[in-house]
Amino acid sequence: MRVLMTRTYPERVIAEAQRHFEVEIREEAAPLKIGQMRGALALYDGIMPTLGDMFSAKVFDEAENPRCKVLANFGVGFNHIDGAAARSAGVAVTNTPGAVTDATADIAMTLMLMATRRAGEGERLVRAGKWAGWHPTQMLGLHVSGKTVGIVGMGRIGQAIARRCHFGFGMKVIYANRSAKELDFDVTRVETLTQLAQQADVVMLAVPGGADTHHLIKAPFFEAMKPGGYLINIARGDVVDETALINALQKGQIAGVGLDVYEHEPKVPEALRMLDNATLLPHLGTAALEVREKMGFMALDNLRAALAGEVPPNLVN
Question: Per-residue pLDDT tens for 190-211?
Fold first, then answer.
């Protein structure tokens, strides 16, 4: 069985893949182009794509009875793959849920602390040699302990964030989600995003990407937020209307933002990069070796099952 890895994955993952398949590894960091995706569907039995490899309906338009039988996505989010189009072409789509939960929640906490305590701004000050020394009103930020966190999306990652905020910082947890969740500590579900925006000192976004959540957070949400409120996004970049976000930050409608994802990744608007109240990370949510290895092994389990004619353990379409 021939398998294409669209990026250079961790060494142990590659070695395990080579035990089971004839593997081709694409060494470019840039996402696949549409012609490359169409070619891959014809040439390989399975493909391990990842974020940025846009397997849209257009890619499958000319794929009549493709050789490829499974797209084993390296990552939990799969909104870059048109599941309906893949299914119509006879291609299964899988993902890697669970493997990324704790690591992504940890990055959410990192961003919350960096943004509210102005850590990025402070580090830039020190590196530029402009720090004049400690004084009582230097770079005052928000003390998050005991404050209210509002979580948009209460799946695995949202719940992991809630647990860290509640037990680690004694924060009151409110959330917006399509359905109510039962947790073993106090959380409160709000009916609307506006209510969440009005009540939260820190807003955490943990919803999946896709058409249903595209620009879920836009100008009216920022208008409803507290002037001293912070937004943290570890979900998908296009969940936030980036233009409206920049406007809210420039006008001082909100105090700051912490982002690990961007609407047109890897492009980050200069206007956003120039803002001191924007904490920006290069999509580090799962960037720990053991996590990336776990994701890879899970994707390989999905590949092996699908190519053996079995139902993959993490089938999403």
Answer: 999 999 999 999 999 999 998 9
Q: Copy the structure tokens of residue 134.
A: 């400690």
User: Cα–Cα distance between 295 and 287 in angstroms, integer?
Assistant: 11
Structural contact between residues 224 and 198, judged by C-beta atoms closer than 8 angstroms: yes
Region for residue 113 given its phi and psi (left: phi exceeds 0; alpha: psi -120 to 50; beta: otherwise) = alpha
DSSP designation for 311: P
Residue 106 to residue 77: CA distance in whole angstroms: 17
pLDDT over 90 at 302, yes or no: yes
- The set of residues, in sequence order, having a beta carbon less than 8 Å from that of 65 and lying 6+ positions away, is 89, 90
Helix 101-116 / helix 156-163 crossing angle, nearest 10 deg: 50
Find, among 178, 182, 186, 187, the residue nearest to 207 by Cα.
178
> Which residues carry out catalysis?
236, 265, 283
Question: Is 21 in contact with 46 (CB distance < 8 Å)?
Answer: yes
Pairing of strands 202-205, 148-152: parallel
210: left (phi over 0), alpha (psi -120 to 50) or beta: left
Sheet with 230-233: strands ordered across: 188-189, 172-176, 148-152, 202-205, 230-233, 256-259, 278-280
Q: In the block, which residue shows the tokens 């695995």?
A: 156
- Measured CA to CA, the distance from residue 315 to residue 150 in angstroms comes to 31
Segment 151-180 mean pLDDT: 98
Contact 161, 151 (CB under 8 A): yes
DSSP string, 228-245: T-EEEE-S-GGGB-HHHH
Is residue 317 predicted with pLDDT exceeding 90?
no
